Amino acid sequence: MKDGIKIVTIGGGSSYTPELVEGFIKRYHELPIKELWLVDIEAGQEKLNIVGALAKRMVEKAGLPIDVHLTLDRRAALKDADFVTTQFRVGLLEARAKDERIPLKYGVIGQETNGPGGLLKGLRTIPVILEIVKDMEELCPDAWLVNFTNPAGMVTEAVLRYTNLKKVVGLCNVPIGIKMGIAKALDVDVERIEVQFAGLNHMVYGLDVYLDGVSIMDQVLDELGNPNSQWSMRNIEAKNWEPSFVKGLGVIPCPYHRYYYKTKDMLEEEQKAAQEKGTRAEVVQQVEQELFELYKDPDLSIKPPQLEKRGGAYYSDAACNLISSIYNDKHDIQPVNTVNRGAIASIPAESAVEVNCIITKDGPKPIATGDLPVAVRGLVQQIKSFERVAAEAAVTGDYETALVAMTINPLVPSDEIAKQILDEMLEAHREYLPQFFKSVNA
Ligand code: G6P
């Protein structure tokens, strides 16, 4: 890879960027980055300047020869990149707050990546990702796209279906969070734990767990049902699982499964939060303000611990481990979003899945897991259908397709309610959805 690696991070002004920079610094001995380009749009310029200055101080403190560039010129940044990471949010947190609040009015879960919120986020995000891919094909055709932008599963599906880019990987911190959670609950070192992951993004299950190579699934399922175990992520209420349910399910659900298996409880919790402390996006807006105040401090040259209040903890480990394993052809096992190629029998071969893969210089090679257990197979297939129809709607701007996506989502109770929610949400996000308002904009 020439003399040193060039990484481009789109959405570089994100409050998460110090995590990523810390991850690169920690791994410099195996991942010699020469240039790190943080790219943002005009609306993100102020954040980019603040977080970019912190990134420069972090690199300087570490004494490493990484050139950090800040720019609003995406195309200039992409030229000859080796890895492009994407972590942007179309419409910023204000748009996420609408995704969370509007469905609640109709008695439906309002969430960033699940249900109506996930659909609308996909409709806003996919066209932008496809534009980035177009630029990549022209300016850095050999680069890898490492996407964190949510909804990461739907975005990966769209890139696989609607572009010719083969070098795309979707990443998430849910699997690493589950692994950490198990290690913590059992009070063992995380390196001793191995989890066999399979499913979709934010819909992934642990099919088996090993401690030093011995399956400890029964113990882990007991722990999941333990009411004292606070095993969740920062952004999701840690509502207890019914012990006999998880035991009977026989696989480890991810924190997001609470929206499907505990819909009523989660809805009530969201409604209460929306009235009292604000939705998750509104809480995160506060956290962000505090973070950016800290980032401004010219004496700060490390990632501040307050960043751990965000749900994306460890995401840089997932990202940096992946990039390093591709670069170093490590052949280690990591759970990522990639093309299925038959690894999960019940999902189309050409679709995106989140599954354990062997990571090589040619990318992730999914490990065959066969069929998912019958108790979870249907839900996973249903969500995959939702993601596919949603991606099609995002690309075509077709209203009927969007309505079908909304209606087949298991969190939406009827076609009529789906239509009401869709109409209100399309209008609310109009400025970010030009594909749905073509005749008006023409
Ligand atoms: C988890 C998910 C991410 C999501 C994040 C939200 O980590 O895996 O996909 O972006 O939570 O966290 P936040 O602090 O923004 O609510």
TrEMBL record:
Cofactor annotation comment: Binds 1 NAD(+) per subunit.
A single Pfam family it belongs to is Glyco_hydro_4
Give the matching InterPro entries: GlycHydrolase_4_CS, Glyco_hydro_4, Glyco_hydro_4_C, Lactate_DH/Glyco_Ohase_4_C, NAD(P)-bd_dom_sf
Which GO MF terms are attached to this record? Answer: 6-phospho-beta-glucosidase activity; metal ion binding; oxidoreductase activity, acting on the CH-OH group of donors, NAD or NADP as acceptor
Q: Which UniProt keywords apply?
A: Carbohydrate metabolism, Cobalt, Glycosidase, Hydrolase, Iron, Manganese, Metal-binding, NAD, Nickel
Output the Gene3D superfamilies linked to this UniProt entry: Lactate dehydrogenase/glycoside hydrolase, family 4, C-terminal, NAD(P)-binding Rossmann-like Domain
PANTHER family given in the database record: 6-PHOSPHO-BETA-GLUCOSIDASE, 6-PHOSPHO-BETA-GLUCOSIDASE-RELATED
Which family does the record claim for this protein? Answer: Belongs to the glycosyl hydrolase 4 family.
What protein am I looking at? 6-phospho-beta-glucosidase
Recite the lineage of the species.
Bacteria, Bacillati, Bacillota, Bacilli, Bacillales
Which gene underlies this protein?
A: licH
